[in-house]
Structures are given as structure tokens and as C-alpha cells.
Design a protein that fits this description.
single chain, mainly alpha, Monooxygenase, 4 helices, 2 strands, 7% strand, elongated
Length: 122
């Protein structure tokens, strides 16, 4: 018989012999998956922060170059981050929704900055 734990994206399926004892070496696998989940949550937070230098340039040091940024690209990034955020939230998968929520905020800040400094561009 198979037993499962977790939700979509965080599932851990192991062989279960029916008397509440896991068979095989599943304890190490489950421990490894927990650490991997924490690692991915950390990457989900750090990854979107890579946009921070671009935001500093857009708002503070190089705002006169905002015309060279693609508004349509940053709108698309925002929309995609919104969809991934909703997907992760619905499926209760923190590495997906946390990282994409941060990414959505960063992307929207880029959109707003481009609109402020360059207006509606392509």
C-alpha cells in the first residue's frame, strides 16, 4: 500500500506496510526533502531580490535611461509572477508562492518606475 503526505509539489510518497511502520529507507528521504524544501524557499526569496540593483538604477542613479527598458516585458513578468503566485498559494506550496509574491512586487515596482520616468513605452 502507498501512503502520502504533503500537497501538490511537496508530496512525499512512501511504501507503507499497513502497520504504521515505513518500510525501506524513507526516513532519510523525507529528511532530505524537508531540507530541500527549505533550500528552495530560501532561493525563492533570494532570486527575486536580484532585481533590486535594477530598481536602484531605475529610481535613483540612472532614471534618465528608463526609455531603454521594455515596459511590455516587465508587465509580462508581473503577470507571470502573479499566475505563479496564485498557483503556489492555491496548492499551499510556499517556495512557489513566497518567491513569486516577492517577484511580483519587484516587477510591479519596475513597471511603475518605467511609467514614472519614461511614460508608456514599448
Amino acid at each position: 500500500m502507498w501512503a502520502g503526505a504533503g500537497g501538490c509539489g511537496g508530496e512525499v510518497w512512501v511504501l507503507w506496510d499497513g502497520d504504521d511502520r515505513m518500510t525501506g529507507n524513507t526516513t532519510n528521504k523525507m529528511t532530505w526533502l524537508r531540507y530541500f524544501e527549505i533550500c528552495m524557499l530560501t532561493m525563492g526569496i533570494i532570486g527575486p531580490l536580484a532585481t533590486a540593483p535594477q530598481l536602484v538604477k531605475l529610481y535613483h542613479t540612472h532614471s534618465h535611461h528608463a526609455h531603454g527598458l521594455s515596459l511590455s516585458s516587465w508587465i509580462a513578468y508581473s503577470f507571470l509572477a502573479l499566475l505563479w503566485f496564485l498557483y503556489g498559494f492555491v496548492h499551499k506550496n510556499a517556495p512557489i508562492w513566497v518567491g513569486n509574491l516577492i517577484g511580483l512586487v519587484m516587477d510591479l515596482l519596475m513597471v511603475i518606475g518605467i511609467l514614472i520616468h519614461a511614460g508608456i513605452t514599448f
